[in-house]
Structures are given as C-alpha cells and as structure tokens.
C-alpha cells in the first residue's frame, strides 16, 4: 500500500477550529476523542486534517501553511472573513501570474487564499 498524506494542526481549541476549517474547506467533522478532532473530505480525495490540542501557545510564523485554491480569490476571502478568518495584509499579493491573500484562522494560524495561476479575481 502506498503512503498517504495526513495533516495535523496544533491548536488550543480543536472543537472551535473544527467548525472553522470544516466550513472553510468543505470537510466533515468525523468526531473527536480527548485532545483530537478529525476532519475528512467525504469524497476521500483530500488529506485528512487532525486538529490536536496542545498546551503551548502559537509563537512566530508557521513553517508550513495551507493554500486554499480558487479562481475567485476576493469572494473566497470575504466568505472566510465571515467565518472568522482575518487578513494579515490589506491588499492581495501578485507575483508570477499568481494572486493571493495571506490570512489567519481564528487561532492565528496562517494560510493563503490563492488563484494558483487560474486567473480570476
């Protein structure tokens, strides 16, 4: 069997972040146990996302982050702001035919909303 990719995000409140991330990326909250909440893509096409409660607070910039790819960056940013995300910079960044907005989830974990070279707003 080939290896698969699973993602783990350390956080203070996995239940709260499960609400945000499941709505943000269309995942289903499979359930929680102790310090963990598991989110899955029901189609089984995307990696699982495990939210793990940790005692230490986030410090500094994430070394790895999620990209939410969409041809409609501005609309997706507005939707995510409605879910509790915040922009880190007021303007989108444009480089090498890509456009993206750097944001944070409700606990301050960075992620980007980008067009991945697809054009659009």
Short description:
With 121 residues, this protein is α+β, with helices and mostly antiparallel strands. It is built from two helices and nine strands; from the N terminus they run βαββββαββββ.
Structure, described:
This protein is an alpha+beta fold. The chain contains two helices and nine strands; from the N terminus they run βαββββαββββ. The chain has helices at residues 14-25, 73-83; strands spanning 6-11, 28-33, 36-40, 48-53, 66-69, 86-87, 93-95, 98-104, 110-114. Strands 5, 6, 7, 8 and 9 form a five-stranded mixed sheet that branches. A four-stranded mixed sheet has the order 1-4-3-2, with helices on one face. It is globular and about 40 Å long. It starts with 5 loop residues before the first strand and ends in a 7-residue tail after the last strand. The mean pLDDT is 93.
Judging from the principal axes of the Cα atoms, what is the shape? globular
- Strand residue content: 35-45%
Question: What's the SSE pattern?
Answer: EHEEEEHEEEE
Overall pLDDT: 93
Cα radius of gyration in angstroms: 15 Å
**β-strand number:** 9
Helical content stands at 10-25%
Question: Which class best fits the helix and strand makeup?
Answer: alpha+beta
